[in-house]
Specification:
- The chain folds into two domains: 29 residues, no CATH class; 60 residues, no CATH class.
- The chain contains three helices and two strands.
- The chain starts with a strand and ends in a 25-residue tail after the last helix.
- By secondary structure, the chain is mainly alpha-helical.
- α1 crosses α2 and α2 packs across α3.
- The structure holds zinc ion (ZN).
- The site of zinc ion has 8 residues, from loops.
């Protein structure tokens, strides 16, 4: 595979780390990341507006997801506060709508990878 300097376009050796023409540093060779058996290991509870299960903006669903509440109760309390609380439920909803970021678009999680097979010397 031919490698070219990204600064001057000079053809380089595959393993060159510096361009002999202009001295620009080349990209380090690609190193596969180490194997993490439980990667990702942490799932941080974040206050986001999920894209699934939302009614209006996902505020109630996001609060329910973040604190393991029942989304039905969150919605009931919001409506009750809106009707009987002088609109405070609606106000809180709008504030959360502004403050809470929308859940980032994510691809479905990859299935867990099996551990790499142990090295076996070729049998001759
Ligand atoms: Zn160069």
């Amino acid at each position: 595979m031919a490698v070219f300097c990204r600064s001057c376009g000079k053809s380089l050796a595959d393993d060159a780390r510096f361009c002999p023409g202009c001295g620009a540093q080349m990209q380090p060779p690609f190193v596969p990341p180490p194997y993490y058996p439980n990667y990702p290991t942490t799932s941080v509870t974040r206050l986001v507006r999920p894209r699934m299960g939302r009614m209006i903006a996902g505020v109630c669903q996001g609060l329910a997801d973040a604190y393991a509440w029942d989304v039905v109760w969150v919605r009931v309390i919001t409506v009750l506060l809106t009707v009987f609380g002088g609109g405070s439920g609606l106000l809180a909803y709008i504030i959360f709508w502004i403050v809470m970021p929308e859940e980032p678009l994510m691809l479905p999680p990859m299935p867990p990878m099996p551990p790499p097979p142990p090295y076996q010397p070729p049998s001759q």
